[in-house]
Amino acid sequence: MSGATRAQKVRLGIFLGVAGTILGGTLVGMVGLAAIEKRDEYPVRFEGSVAGLSPGSPVRYNGIDVGRVDSVRIDPKKPSGVLVTISLVEGTPLRDDTVAVLNLQGITGLKFIELQGGREDASNIEPGTEVPSSRSTVDLLTDKAQSIALKLEDVLDNLGKMTSGDNAKSITAILTSVDSISASIARILEDNSSSVATLVTDARAVVTDVRALIATAKTMLTSVDGAIGRASEWVNPADVQDTFGRLQGTLGRVDLTLSGVDDAVKNVRNRLSAAETGAAIAAFTGLANSSTDLVKRADSTLLRAREDLFRVLDAVTEGAESFAELANLLRDDPASLLRGKGRDREVPE
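User: That's the sequence. What structure does it adopt?
Assistant: Structure tokens below.
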């Protein structure tokens, strides 16, 4: 290949010069803009490792890029901590309750700083004020996973100890015994299956009988209630109450009479001599005894009247039942009244 001509060399030189000028201007512009751009810087202190975070990593506030990480260095006052300087766009509002959290950026392992919090009623902090840090959800989950892994490891170790050596023999013996017991129960159930079935059938029959007995008892109670109701229709309770009231009034008047006799005896005793008083007392005593006998007879008469009344009530109840049976008979077979045929009935005494 022949050498380049002078014109080609000139054109190449012009191209390189223009390209270099453009590249240099671009670099100078970028550096100049970065140098003259006003930003707010805040220090952030993290405890532990910040692997994946480096200068230039983004800083986000509620998911929006608001700055970058300027520097990452060991805290000279506390070597276990890391001091990170972040620079935010000028005017980015940070409240006194804002915290910085490390979060993962995708699956690459790179991290960024997420600013969280900021109540409306909280006050702003000035640039240069340290922003407190907080542990991220990922860190908390990692710690929980490590704690769970440690506990699982302890459980597995304990299980290993329980199932080793003599314990393994004991567990095997227990399982063998359980298997034997299960087989015995199965054989017993198989041998006595007919007895079990009979027992279940008998139990069902008993339940059926109990239900029938309950139904019969309910029917009897209903019949008794109806008989009482029919008796109350035939007998007027007001008349019965009036009869007892008159008898009680009679006894009350007798009691008043005895009280009057007692007062009269006292008056006569005060006015008469001893002999006369004795005679009068004897006479009045006889009168009192007669009155007492009268009261006793009235009381026995009242008792007999009550017994007679109860018998009347029973007779009325039986009569009501007889009339009810007659009505049912006539309703079922009206012709029986003409034929004169019917079932034998018991006549109450």
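Residues 337-349 have pLDDT under 50 and may be disordered.
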